[in-house]
Design brief:
about 180 residues; alpha+beta; Alpha-Beta Plaits; 2 domains; five-stranded antiparallel beta sheet; 4 helices; about 20% helix; about 40% strand; globular
């Protein structure tokens, strides 16, 4: 049972679909938040109608022999905003913001965030991966993530498929069976 209901991770709800048809409708920027302020800032941006994306993943914890579900930011201290210079300036003045990082390759970040959103909405358990090392490029061939390209890393439990947001050198992973991955 969730402690709190899952809050919106992006605004508007159809952010990625809407942005595919708007090539000149603003730019992405990376928001570096103060510690543990990602969700607070997301609530404020949602209320203000400012476009943002805060990737959240579900984690199950046990408190006093009860299993509870919590929704945590995938990238601690980071979220993503979208808009013109005026929107960016309004965001940077908020007390939860430590800094704003400009993005040079807009299309690459948009593509990585779309893939990440699809991964998070696939229903598979997701794990945050920090400071990723270069690995073997691969593609998933079967299942809800078919066609997604990323990297494979090996751990004690088997293989993990990793999608990266190169700009902040972090990503998310999902455990996969060797049978559904092909090398690129």
């Amino acid at each position: 049972m969730p402690i709190l209901e899952k809050e919106p991770s992006c605004a508007p709800d159809d952010l990625f679909e809407r942005l595919q048809g708007e090539p000149g409708g603003g730019k992405w920027f990376v928001i570096r938040t103060k510690p543990r302020m990602e969700k607070t800032l997301a609530r404020e941006l949602y209320a203000a109608g400012s476009p943002f994306y805060l990737p959240l993943f579900e984690e199950r914890k046990i408190y006093q022999r009860r299993v509870v579900i919590v929704y945590l930011p995938l990238f601690s201290g980071y979220m993503f905003g979208h808009g013109d210079e005026e929107t960016r300036d309004r965001v940077v003045r908020r007390r939860e913001v430590a800094s704003i990082l400009p993005v040079d390759d807009q299309e690459r970040l948009r593509s990585e965030l779309c893939a990440l959103d699809r991964l998070l909405n696939s229903g598979e358990p997701v794990t945050a991966e920090e400071r990723l090392e270069a690995g073997m490029p691969a593609q998933i061939t079967l299942g809800p993530l078919a066609g997604r390209s990323g990297q494979v890393i090996e751990n004690r439990g088997g293989m993990k498929f990793v999608l990266q947001v190169q700009f902040i050198q972090q990503g998310a992973s999902v455990e996969v069976d060797r049978a559904v991955i092909k090398a690129l």
